[in-house]
Specification:
By secondary structure, the protein is α+β, with helices and mostly antiparallel strands. It has four domains: 81 residues, no CATH class; 170 residues, 3-Layer(aba) Sandwich (Aminopeptidase), CATH 3.40.630; 74 residues, Alpha-Beta Plaits (2-Layer Sandwich), CATH 3.30.70; 168 residues, 3-Layer(aba) Sandwich (Aminopeptidase), CATH 3.40.630. Helices cover 31% and strands 26% of the residues. The chain has an eight-stranded mixed sheet with strand order 6-7-8-9-10-5-11-12. A seven-stranded mixed sheet has the order 17-18-19-20-21-16-22, sandwiched between helices. Helix 14 links the parallel strand 20 and strand 21. The termini are far apart.
């Protein structure tokens, strides 16, 4: 498949995606918005077997689902309830109640069906119609599904995709349940997972007592395990939807939170994380006021996502989260240009300047004696951060300061925590930097330079004033050669958090706006 790999990459580069709005199928009086694409619009000139299964494998990992030849992903602006969930089958361990259900259904026969002619039989259409009507009869505005409509639904779910199979569940030769499943392949032709598309079953009381729905999931996880498929995709988990929140009973699981698969172990150790995460993602306040008692507790780095310096991943940067982050040694750092979600970082090693160890070079000392610049604080925050975003840096393509970051930090500035230091020459802004002030800790974010020594001189003057005001620590976050010249050194995350806990509660002797009145 070596030749096919290149073509597949081209397909992804040229895939057509659209958006669609419909009535939400889970919550009343809500509108759902989805991103969608079609498998049957792929390049038909490629002679790649099961190309749709290869395409869907990548889409599935990004949270897409399938109906017929349509792949779709929810992207509702004011709701983040639909969370893709999957089971890493090698680590799955059935609970005591799940083991009892397995034992109870030992007499059930499971048959793999691969022929499309067997996907939509009259027997299956009748079972599906009864199942659908039984489970939806209490929904407002519900209309009974006819047998013909049921047959058409089954046809749509079982077609439009070349990787469909059915698992037929039978008791004493009689059909009692059917799973519609999708194989997905990697570009080398290996099956990497099985996606649960739909499960319907006999609604007779004697079948309901068997918990056949739970049994089907357990069987399909085991099916993946026996065939060495790494993942079983369970569809969508909705925390506040009764019909969809049972899926976290299969542990350990993974949730796709803003493009990164999280680990259930971490979420379970921090039981409020997911609830607070949803609250944050749905937060759209324009207010610049911060309730300092309403702190979001960030998880330990690595606990949820497995990356040892990432604490959380979100889609936006609400003010409350930004305030909570800096007070816990966390900060957002991501590439908005590359389409990254917001990655909330907490480095294992922190680069800091203990203010008493500030180093000033002889050249800067000499420059300050004949300084041509004027310095201000918080006079042009928006201009400073925009110039920082434009600053070209060695070994760096683009910038991490995108529109989302700029908007968030401008609000943080209005709230009184983010500050800018400006350098002026002949009335023009020629340098500066910005950062966050927490008590006697200053967290430097970024700087820019247009005229020689503009930001360097501003930083030295600011640091000296910061020390006179009682400042204790300047946080440079991660190593840079530039900050190393000023005496910055690495300390561990634990050491940094201890210093932050101690110094963030100690206010400066006088306000930051008075700094430059005593430095020149």
């Amino acid at each position: 498949m070596a030749d096919a790999e290149i073509n597949i990459e081209k397909i992804f580069a040229n895939m057509m995606f659209g958006k669609n709005k419909t009535e939400c199928g889970y919550f009343l009086n809500r509108e759902a918005e989805s991103i969608l694409t079609y498998f049957d619009r792929q390049d038909s000139t490629l002679s790649v077997e099961k190309l749709d299964c290869i395409t869907y494998e990548r889409l599935l990992r990004q949270g897409f689902r399938r109906y017929n030849s349509l792949a779709y992903k929810t992207c509702c602006q004011n709701c983040h309830e639909c969370i893709p969930i999957r089971i890493p089958v090698k680590t799955f361990a059935p609970s005591r109640s799940q083991r009892r259900i397995l034992h109870k259904n030992q007499d059930v026969e499971v048959i793999i069906t691969t022929s499309p002619a067997d996907f939509c039989t009259d027997e299956k259409a009748l079972m599906y119609r009864n199942y659908y009507n039984h489970h939806n009869e209490e929904e407002p505005g519900f209309k009974l599904l006819t047998l013909q409509e049921a047959a058409e639904d089954l046809k749509n779910m079982n077609s439009g995709y070349s990787g469909v199979i059915n698992l037929d569940y039978k008791l004493n030769g009689q059909l009692i349940g059917v799973s519609i499943l999708d194989y997905v392949f990697d570009q080398h032709g290996f099956i990497t997972g099985l996606s649960s598309n739909y499960f319907y079953y006999d609604i007779r009381e004697e079948v309901l007592k068997r918990s056949i729905g739970v049994y089907s999931v357990l069987v399909e996880i085991n099916f993946c395990l026996q065939n060495h498929f790494p993942y079983y995709y369970l569809g969508l988990y909705l925390p506040h939807c009764r019909k969809m929140n049972y899926k976290v009973n299969y542990k350990p699981y993974q949730l796709l939170l803003n493009g990164i698969w999280s680990n259930s172990q971490g979420l379970e150790q921090c039981p409020q994380v997911l609830e607070n995460y949803l609250r944050i993602e749905n937060e759209k306040s324009r207010s610049c006021k911060i309730d300092t008692t309403d702190i979001f507790d960030f998880p330990e780095p690595g606990l949820i996502y497995g990356y040892d310096e990432i604490s959380l991943v979100t889609d936006n940067i609400p003010l409350r989260l930004l305030y909570s982050a800096y007070n816990q040694g966390v900060f957002p750092w991501f590439s908005e240009d590359d389409g990254d979600p917001v990655l909330w970082q907490s480095p294992k090693k922190r680069f800091v300047i203990p203010i008493r160890q500030l180093h000033v070079s002889k050249s800067i000392e000499k420059f300050l004696k004949h300084n041509p610049y004027t310095y201000t604080i918080d006079k042009a925050f928006g201009d400073v951060i925009k110039n920082c975003a434009k600053q070209k840096r060695p070994n760096q393509n683009g910038t991490w300061i995108g529109p989302k970051m700029i908007k968030a930090y401008k609000k943080f500035h209005k709230a009184g925590y983010a500050h800018s230091i400006e350098v002026w020459k002949d009335g023009k802004l020629v340098g500066g930097f910005y950062g966050i002030l927490l008590g006697s800790v200053f967290c430097g974010e970024s700087m820019f330079t247009i005229e020689p020594n503009s930001s360097k001189s501003a930083f030295i003057l600011f640091a000296r004033a910061f020390q006179k005001a009682g400042g204790k620590l300047i946080d440079c976050q991660t190593y840079t050669e530039n900050m190393a010249r000023y005496g910055a050194r690495e300390i561990t995350r634990k050491q940094y958090l201890a210093k932050l806990e101690k110094y963030a509660k100690v206010p400066l002797k006088y306000g930051i706006n008075n700094f430059f009145s005593i430095t020149k």
